[in-house]
Design goal:
The chain is mainly alpha-helical. It has one domain. The chain has 5 helices and 2 strands; from the N terminus they run H-E-E-H-H-H-H. Strand 1 and strand 2 form a beta hairpin. The radius of gyration is 18 Å and the shape is globular.
């Protein structure tokens, strides 16, 4: 079996495992209290927010976690490429991936939730940016593995 194919399978299995763990953790976090700023009191767990579909945020959490895993893999790939080639362009890619990784970790629902912040009222706009980011990172990972 080709090394790139093995690596691709390992990446795919890792992303599936990350997605399953993120889904489980997001569903557990979903059961926590959600503040209702209109009434200045805390709603009971699982209480619906008018005009919102809570599973958008579960999907957002899963996609966000997968994007973090993709970026971590890209950082490792770019670091290995830099060690082999010492290319200035690879340093730029490495800096880009690290900064993007930090941004994704900081904006992750898993980081915001323990501090009491919840996103709601966004509807499908909660996860659509993450979907487009996932597509871009997947293309970038494919190109990085291919060459």
């Amino acid at each position: 079996m080709d090394n790139r194919l093995k690596f691709g399978l390992i990446v795919a299995l890792t992303l599936v495992a990350v997605a399953v763990l993120a889904a489980f953790w997001a569903l557990v976090l979903h059961q926590q209290h959600i503040p209702d700023f209109n009434q200045r009191r805390v709603q009971p767990p699982g209480a619906p927010i008018p005009g919102d579909f809570e599973y958008f945020y579960v999907v957002n959490t899963i996609i966000s976690t997968i994007n973090i895993a993709l970026l971590a893999i890209l950082v490792i790939i770019y670091l290995n490429i830099y060690v082999k080639t010492r290319s200035q362009f690879t340093i730029g890619l490495l800096i880009f991936a690290v900064v993007f990784l930090v941004q994704n970790v900081i904006s992750s629902p898993f980081v915001a939730s323990p501090f009491g912040f919840r996103a709601y009222g966004l509807g499908p706009f909660a996860f659509l940016p993450g979907v487009f980011e996932f597509i871009a990172l997947t293309v970038l990972l494919y190109l990085s593995i291919r060459y």
